Amino acid sequence: MNLQIQIDSKNNLSIVHLSGEIDVYTAPKLKEALLPLTKTHNGLVEVDLEKVSYMDSTGLGVFINALKLSTEHDCKLRLVNLQDRVLRLFQITGLHEIMDLNSTIRGVDE
Amino acid sequence: MDTKDLDARTYADLLSRYIETQDERALYGAEKISKSFIRKNILPEEIVNLHIQALLDIYPESRDQILPSMNFLLEAMISYGLAHQEYQMLREKQLEIKSEIQVAARMQKMLMQTEIPEIKGLDIGVISVPANQMNGDYHHFVKDKDGSISIAIADVIGKGVPAALAMSMIKYAMDSFPASRMSTSTILASLNRVVEQNVDPGMFITMFYAQYEPKTGKLHYSSAGHEPGFFFSKKKNRFIDIDAKGLVLGVNQNTTYSQSELLLEKEDMVILLTDGVTECQKDGKFIEREDIVEVIKKYMHLTSQEIVNRVYRHFERLQNFDLRDDFTLVIFKKVV
Amino acid sequence: MNSLSYVSIMKEWDIVAARQMGRELSKQIGFGTVDQARITTAISELARNIYLYAGEGQICFEAIKTLDQKGILIIAKDNGPGIKDLSQVMEDGYSTSGGLGAGLPGVRRLMDEFDIETEVGKGTKISTKKWVR
Lengths: 110, 336, 133
Fold this sequence. Notes:
Chain B: It comes from Ornithinibacillus halotolerans. Chain B: Keywords: Hydrolase. The complex is a heterotrimer of chains A (110), B (336) and C (133). With 110 residues, chain A is of the alpha/beta class. Chain A is built from three helices and five strands. In chain B, 49% of the residues lie in helices and 21% in strands. By secondary structure, chain C is α+β, with helices and mostly antiparallel strands. Helices cover 38% and strands 30% of the residues of chain C. Chain C contains four helices and five strands; from the N terminus they run E-H-H-E-E-H-H-E-E. A five-stranded antiparallel β-sheet of chain C has the order 1-2-3-5-4, with helices on one face. In chain C, a hairpin with a 3-residue loop joins strand 4 and strand 5. Chain C is globular. Chains A and B meet through helix 2 of A and loops of B.
């Protein structure tokens, strides 16, 4: 039921570090922090889920929302360092095929 | 202020009696008057004041010793009085909200009713238990004229009335598609377009949709990001995952779905579920899918309805009768 | 004592001075022990808000009278940041400092009449009255 959010922004690149659980109680907080970032034209938003121990479908809904917005605004969205259970959720729902999910080192490629 | 004086008198009498006798009856009297104070919304600081007046009556010569410390207590009690009033207010608000949800839940139940159809050679069992008042899981059966059956199991992500409306969209869509004429993949694609256009950007639906033909024993199925079910083959005596891949409904307008087929032979079983089952916990850790299979193995010999009931009871007990998520389990066995 | 007086709130200690003056005046006006304590708690809450959020302000006291009643008027004013979301701040269950029960809804419960004017960037003025029963 606890979620810590830390955002590092520079120019068009934002890195969002999440720590804790994304569920029905914390999803609104994530939504408020993440969605505005995805409206950056030609931007890149990278979300680090290394310290996210649990996520349920409410959390997935926030990422779907973020995905839709980022596509609309020509912004790239990338999720990195997903834990097994969280990755599984993206795989079962088919989202891993349409989203950028990997474990590359942060902020290198741009 | 008649009742106030009466309370003060009663309190003082009870207090002096207790000081004198130290007997249990006086304490019981204290309990009763305390309950009547709460009913009358008398605040803690007023009770301390009653006590002060009573004490001054009983020990008038000790006025200087009693007063400072009791006045100190009175001050300390005021915050408790405020907190109590706030609790009352919040409780009332909560009851209001609860009854609103009750209305919505009753509506949902009425609109979403689905009967388990009688299909030749198929023993069907279903259980769907919401974690709260409104059920986010949805299941529906449609029996077609030619004897085949459509089965849908879905999990609507999103809450309350919008989620329930999404479910009714699915129900009415299913009721209007004649089962034999459209493939499961086409139906999911159609539903996906409807859902995508009509829900919030953060809402989505996972769904497993299947059609079973009793004449051939064939099960056609497609999945939109739904938790995989299980297939039990009697011949091989094995449970295997029903692996079907597809994107959840509501994300992309143009998503297409694939379709697969299973042949059911005598005593084969199909088990469908929602993630309310896989999200159960044991000793603080999430269960594995194998754990679900283990429990089903225990009750496999019973009728499908008995199996789903027992499996539910098992996990309900494991969660201390407090499920985190809506729990839906559908089992059908080919009996001939 | 004057019927109209005030205490400046600049240090935490000033909250105590405001409480003292409030209690004295309430006693003079004729409030009972419990109501004296309630008025003092309300003043304390208002003064603490000034101290914590505005940094500086005033608590003003006035003995008031109508044809058949006497009472006390407390005015808490500051030139601080003002209150952004007033409806949220006045809602039960919302609290920034202190736990359950405190805050402006608490002051409203302790007193009989309550009024608030606030403007973001300009300041806040809270007037509250209690009548002798």
